[in-house]
Specification:
Number of helices: 12
CATH class of the largest domain: Alpha Beta
CATH superfamily of the largest domain: Enolpyruvate transferase domain
Number of strands: 23
Strand content: 15-25%
Radius of gyration: 21 Å
Helix content: 25-40%
Largest sheet: 4 strands, mixed
CATH topology of the largest domain: UDP-n-acetylglucosamine1-carboxyvinyl-transferase, Chain
CATH architecture of the largest domain: Alpha-beta prism
Shape: globular
Length: 422
């Protein structure tokens, strides 16, 4: 299947933000480990979050998806599965990483596997830290990469962990830590990648009743005698997914409003709005909505997006429409995502007519005379959506395998159709 994107604009559209994928993953895990019953309102039901739910169900936790909510009967810190469990995380790195530490709370060994691309995504630093904390972690294929066999127990204690590849290594341990035999203390020798996601993790943990202390992004301690409690919890709107909608106003001109967003959210991808404002867009917020408007030209900028990794490709698409070059830094860890996002973005923009320079940790886009191309997203939802947005400004774009957006934004194409943009 192919979605063809034609040139349009200026726009005047209003969208509803999909629920946050990051918050949904974490709320599922906290609810599954909690004592008692949890009701999660407004969750994201997408491929990735369903994989996390299935993994928790395989570990013995009853989870029911209802219209607009999830109900979970928590296991009070011990997964009740009766024997060894194998969880296929497919292409969801969040599922595999977050469940790796939680698997130490199962009575029997747990094997976590995934797609061929998943087997190329390193988890060695997480395994090393878990071994220090009492886990027995075995790699059944290549050392440092999935599949992983997890056994042993989460004793707790002190360890250091390198999160420069992914902050999810740290989030994984933190989320399981309330059920360790003693307090867990993590020291991070380097600034973690995507560090703002640690704020999301901490937010969910605290709301479910855990006790967590921290010093910025270099030290965390979780109390082992303060467990999660079942509760009613509402998932907030997703700034990562909203970035594509905001970008439509930036590349096409006009105005886009996205409702259902928390203006005070700790989500790092809010920084995308700062980038658009610096490029010449007008950004205004109300109680639960944000509007982006562009009436003039776009200027190139320099921006560190290390805490907003999921919007790097969206910013690159906007940068291709600017009047001057844009340099995006903090991009080095994007090679470990569902695809090599920097490589794929650079190649596609070059084929479209832009100039692109890539370094170990940066991406510079020099605007040129652009034309539409066929885009192979390499099964990466964010690639498909970023270049669909750019296609609305350029025209002649053909997005292959459009169903890959089901991973995080199942209603993406329908939202564009609904506003007459496709």
């Amino acid at each position: 299947m192919i979605v063809r994107v034609s040139q349009t604009g200026p726009v005047d559209a209003t969208f509803s933000a999909p629920p946050s994928k990051s918050y949904t993953h974490r709320a599922l895990i906290a609810g599954a480990l909690a004592a008692g019953r949890s009701r999660i309102s407004g969750p994201l039901r997408a491929v990735d979050t369903e994989l996390t739910a299935r993994g928790l169900e395989a570990l013995g936790v009853p989870i029911e998806w209802l219209p607009g909510e999830i109900t979970i009967t928590g296991c009070d810190g011990t997964f009740p599965a009766a024997g060894e469990v194998t969880i296929d995380c497919k292409n969801s790195g969040t599922t595999l990483r977050l469940l790796t530490s939680a698997a130490l709370l199962a009575r029997h060994p747990v094997v976590l596997m995934g797609s061929p691309r998943m087997l190329e995504r390193p988890v060695g630093p997480l395994a090393g830290a878990l071994r220090t904390l009492g886990g027995e972690i075995a790699f059944t294929g290549r050392e440092g990469y999935p599949p992983i066999r997890v056994s042993g127990r989460l004793r707790g204690g002190r360890t250091t962990i390198d999160g420069s590849i992914s902050s999810q290594f740290i989030s994984s341990i933190l989320m399981a830590a309330p059920y360790a035999e003693e307090d867990v203390e993590l020291t991070l020798p380097e600034t973690p990648a995507s560090r703002s996601y640690l704020d999301v993790t901490a937010d969910v943990m605290l709301r479910f009743g855990a006790r967590l202390e921290r010093r910025g992004y270099d030290w965390f301690r979780v109390k082992s005698d303060v467990a999660y409690r079942g509760r009613n919890y509402r998932v907030e709107g997703d700034y990562s997914s909203a970035s594509y909608l905001f970008a439509i106003a930036a590349v096409c001109g006009g105005r886009v409003t996205v409702t259902g967003l928390n203006p005070a959210s700790v989500q790092g991808d809010r920084r995308f709005l700062d980038a658009l404002e610096a490029m010449g867009c007008r950004v205004t917020s109300s109680t639960d909505a944000v509007t982006v408007e562009r009436t003039g030209g776009l200027a190139g900028i320099e921006m560190d997006m290390s805490s907003s990794p999921d919007t790097v490709q969206t910013l690159a698409a906007v940068a291709a429409m600017a009047a001057s070059p844009t340099t995006i830094t903090g991009t080095g860890h994007l090679q470990y995502k569902e695809s090599d996002r920097v490589g794929v973005t650079a190649d596609t923009l070059r084929r479209m007519g832009a100039g692109v320079t890539v370094t170990e940790d940066s991406l510079t886009i020099t605007p040129g005379l652009l034309h539409g191309v066929a885009v192979d997203p390499h099964d990466d939802h964010r690639t498909a959506m970023a270049f669909a947005v750019l296609g609305l400004a350029v025209g002649g774009m053909a997005i292959r395998d459009p169903e890959c957006v089901e991973k995080s934004f199942p209603g993406f194409w329908e939202a564009l159709y609904g506003e007459g943009l496709l």
